[in-house]
Amino acid sequence: MAQPKTRTIGIIMNGVTGRMGTNQHLVRSILAIREQGGVVLPGGDRLMPEPVLVGRNPRKLEALEQEFGLARWTTDLDEALADESCPIYFDSLSTALRPANVRKAIAAGKHVYAEKPTALTSAEAYELYALARRAGVKHGVVQDKLWLPGLLKLKGLIEGGFFGRILAVRGEFGYWVFTGEDADRPPQRPSWNYRKEEGGSLIADMFCHWRYVLDHTFGPVRSVFCRGATHVPKRWDEKGRPYDATADDAAYAVFELEGGVVAQFNSSWCTRVRRDDLLVIQVDGTEGSAVAGLRDVWTQSRADTPRPVWNPDIEQPINFYQDWTKVPDPAGGFDNAFKVQWELFLRHVVSDEPFPWDLLEGAKGVQLAELATRSWRERRTVDVPDLPR
Q: In this structure, are residues 283 and 289 in contact, taking their beta carbons and an 8 Å threshold?
């Protein structure tokens, strides 16, 4: 029997000098895959990713080289795209910069994997999908939340029939993002997130997430009603300079899903947290309910549901946190959500394994954000049409 072999594959990683790119995509995904000995392929061979970092700031690239021992980096994207040892292009740039670079990568014949949103408009996002399809390259978009422990447990409950008929879904997301006014409390998010002219927008950012979470967990989104807001109109940038916040920093939306399920999501960078996690999703069904955070899920069955009676004149006799059961972790635990999807994409490129999270799915996310913004502007419910494959 032939011994398993290890083969390498070069990945152009553009824009991973930022917090998300460095932590989730470089360190906890690609470098973690290397540390585990690569990705196991059908037949037992292993695939070892070889990152080539691309960025505009050589000092940041040099810092990553020194910290992680990375030998290959460049500030010249064209040079990287000409490298035949790198068949994959990954884009983690800001949204406004992404489409032009993805087009260049497709034209160079590279398989493309990109962060979301894939573009500022649904028309441009769909164009990227169409370009990749015509070019015959493989393509994908990051949809990491599908592999969060809480979402995986929730998906298991649905598939096991725990809820009976699902009635409604309610999501609460957000936290207080400091304005930058106080030097000892710097903002947790970059200032461009709050400048509409630079592609900033909570709706544009988070509704891409909500689209794939709803579509792949509960059912396709068929309509949206949304009210956005810019609650904090003045913030301070990375250099301590004040600026006008022109992008929305909160949104309150109701989605109707196929089959009649109603999903309500409140999303805000201007809220203080008194709940189990930064994202909490409650699902109510005829046979039971569940509350999912990023990692933990609690369930209450029909049999364990208390019978409250409205009486504001006495202390509440029911402890509503009782009679909920925590869903246990599986024996093997959970891997990093970004890393899991990276492994799936690498197997898709090399072994042609299925990968449904493509640039069309990315375009759907941008479409929902765009329609939610229209709903806010026109003060009405807007239908969400199918995008052709």
A: yes
Residue 73 has which token pair? Answer: 């980096």
CATH of domain 6-144+338-353: 3.40.50.720
For residue 184, count other CB atoms closer than 10 A to its CB: 5
**Fold topology of 146-335+366-383:** Dihydrodipicolinate Reductase; domain 2 (3.30.360)
pTM of the model: 0.95
| Tens of pLDDT, residues 157-181 | 999 999 999 999 999 999 999 999 9
Cβ-Cβ contacts under 8 Å for 296 (sequence gap 6 or more): 149, 150, 276, 277, 326, 327
> What would the pLDDT profile of 56-115 be if each residue is shown by its tens digit?
999 999 999 999 998 899 999 999 999 999 999 999 999 999 999 999 999 999 999 999
Distance (Å) of CA 237 to CA 93, 95, 118, 220, 269: 19, 18, 25, 38, 16
Contact 114, 142 (CB under 8 A): yes
* Residue 248 to residue 194: CA distance in whole angstroms: 7
> CB–CB of 287/249 below 8 Å?
no
Query: Which residue in the block uniquely carries the two structure tokens 């083969």?
Result: 7
